Amino acid sequence: MIFGFNTDVKHGETVYHVQSEARENELILQTQVFVRGRCVGKRATSYAEQLSHGGFTDQMKEQILRDQHRLVLDSIRDGRVDSILDKRDTPEALAGVKELDLQWLNASSVHADRNLVMRLRVTDGGSAVEGARLTFRFARPDAAPEINGETRSFDAPLSLSALIENMGMKSDRVAIELNHNIVPREQWPQTQLSDGDHLEIVHFVGGGTSQFALELQ
Question: How far apart are CA 75 and CA 81, in angstroms?
Fold first, then answer.
């Protein structure tokens, strides 16, 4: 049974997106907190022990996840979200969230015979991970944003609303995905673009759609 919860909640001037899901391969119930598309923390609860005792139903699992989701939402509203998120350097947090280690072996020199070579090692608990696949991006700090293959530059930082206006689009005919998360239209005015942001802009025109990709370097 697949289930999860997604909720936007505002505290002060910040809008938080809270996403909870059951990670069945790892036997954990995980709640992640995002701000402007970036994960700022998570809380993970293992249910391996309950499962080993038998009789642990999907309904029980869902209720634990629901309670955890509500706990994070309430902590954000109360301004104490940091107090309930996992601290990554504690044994409990490291045991609850499975993470791979990445080591850059030739960070001191990546040039070899006029080629750019990066040597990376992926490990899990000290053991090499066979078949690991990595995705990374090279970027120049001064590179201009690129929209649909065309390089563009902006004179000042922009909100999503200002960007759409700058591009001459009608806001009621546009959908925006920022860093792989759909941004509700009512959040556009307060959502500022930052270096490294990645946008997908879908423009509904004449019964069809056109799609733009924007990446801020």
Answer: 5
Q: Is residue 114 part of a domain?
A: yes
Task: Identify the pLDDT of residue 182.
Answer: 83
- pLDDT digits over 23-68, tens only? 888 889 999 999 888 888 899 999 988 888 888 898 899 999 999 9
Q: How far apart are CA 86 and CA 93, in angstroms?
A: 6
- Please count the helices (runs of H) and the strands (runs of E) in the chain: 4, 15
Cβ-count burial of 101 within 10 angstroms (0-12 exposed, 13-18 middle, 19+ buried)? Answer: exposed
Handedness of CA 69, 74, 79, 83 (dihedral sign): negative
Both 88 and 44 in a single domain? Answer: yes
If pLDDT is split at 50, 70 and 90, which confidence band does 161 have? confident
Dig out the tokens for 163 from the structure: 């960007």
Interatomic CA distance for residues 104 and 184, integer angstroms? 38
Count of domains observed in the chain: 3
